[in-house]
Amino acid sequence: MARTAKISPVPGSTSAGDNATSRKRRAHKKSRLGCRNCKIRRVKCNEVRPMCGKCLEYGVLCNYDPSIPDLQPRTDASELGCLYSRMDKSLQGTTKPILDMVNVSLDKNTHGPELQSGATRFDRSDLARLDRFQTRTVLTIGTKKVARVFQKEVILLACTNPFLMHLAQAVTASHDRYLCGVATSRPSTAEAYHLNKALIAFQSILSRPIRPEEGDALLVASSLLGVVSFFNLEASSVEEVWPLQDADMAWLNLSDGKQTIWRLASPLKGDSLWRQVAHLFDRDRMPAHQIPEHVPSVFDHLCAEDASSASARLNPYYRTAQQLLPLLDLECNDSTWLQYLGFVNHMDPPYKSLLGRKDPWALLMLLYWYMKVCRGAWWISSRSILQGQAICLYLSRYHSDDLAILAALEKPRMVFDAARMEGWGGISSAVDSPRWS
């Protein structure tokens, strides 16, 4: 039988079939690393993480992460949720023993209404939030020295006092919202949940005699409640903010509640955390001789009487104006923060009543305090800027016949506008700045 000769291919030559196969393979060679949105839209993903260029141009959330829906429009709320998801997934499996230890401690110390509604169970997202509290958020509470004490002590207190653990979670979620540039948006689900759980437990404890071991935790909790209450200002425009609209001004009475807890908790006992904090406050307080001489201001006529006179005692502005005037000549910084906090803590009832009635001079006093602190801590800058702008609008609209007040509005307007332009306040660009007439 004749053998069929095998023809060897000439080196470097290919057949038409081989060429077709080669072209077919090249046409189907696709990246497996692109996001799902680009695959759905049949466009080439540039594979940049966490947000590819095509999704950025198209206005959707990039969905490398399987938990993000396909073609989800980008909004402030959706980006905040995406950030939470990335933070939660960054935790490694080694955190499970820590999480178990926290849950055991919380279960052991759960009682009252918390016990009736089921023990608190923390998950990895809560543990991630707790880590952000410890490494970031707690350092924004109080002066620098006091914040370091809180960093050392608060987590230990929170693990044995579930209401404080919930408050630490709520404050950190508020801080997250600020850093995402949506400070005046609605609180996240986690933020609202933890704040509600904290308030229920907090109120239950205050309805009975306070145990000695609860004193430190209650006072830290009252400080964190002050932070959350002052920060929370939900508005989509300046027109929705008090005094342009009626709103809850409960934050004005927080100092009264803290003083009540102070009396109940015996905070200066020998082993108390607050004995150390009080010592730091005394050391950090600016001596009277270092306070600069007061320069005449628009408020001088509100407290011109002699302090011992009957007219001074009857003057509803007097005591609060005396707290404000020295601050007008001070820069708000770590060394003067206690003096600025004293203004809020020493608002007396007659002055608060004037604020409730939207008295123009009472509003102007608050406005100038806002102007001085609007570049301060994250939890104070949002309200200071937005409510400060609302007060400016209110006074210019309804007290345009008072030339002294109109002249006094010029500087705060410029300060608030500049602070927003510099990025203070964490206020979304969707919340328009007012147009001054």
TrEMBL record:
<feature type="compositionally biased region" description="Polar residues">
    <location>
        <begin position="11"/>
        <end position="20"/>
    </location>
</feature>
<dbReference type="GO" id="GO:0008270">
    <property type="term" value="F:zinc ion binding"/>
</dbReference>
<keyword id="KW-0805">Transcription regulation</keyword>
<dbReference type="InterPro" id="IPR053157">
    <property type="entry name" value="Sterol_Uptake_Regulator"/>
</dbReference>
<keyword id="KW-0238">DNA-binding</keyword>
<dbReference type="InterPro" id="IPR001138">
    <property type="entry name" value="Zn2Cys6_DnaBD"/>
</dbReference>
<feature type="region of interest" description="Disordered">
    <location>
        <begin position="1"/>
        <end position="28"/>
    </location>
</feature>
<dbReference type="GO" id="GO:0003677">
    <property type="term" value="F:DNA binding"/>
</dbReference>
<dbReference type="InterPro" id="IPR036864">
    <property type="entry name" value="Zn2-C6_fun-type_DNA-bd_sf"/>
</dbReference>
<feature type="domain" description="Zn(2)-C6 fungal-type">
    <location>
        <begin position="34"/>
        <end position="64"/>
    </location>
</feature>
<protein>
    <recommendedName>
        <fullName>Zn(2)-C6 fungal-type domain-containing protein</fullName>
    </recommendedName>
</protein>
<dbReference type="GO" id="GO:0001228">
    <property type="term" value="F:DNA-binding transcription activator activity, RNA polymerase II-specific"/>
</dbReference>
<keyword id="KW-0804">Transcription</keyword>
<keyword id="KW-0539">Nucleus</keyword>
<dbReference type="Pfam" id="PF00172">
    <property type="entry name" value="Zn_clus"/>
</dbReference>
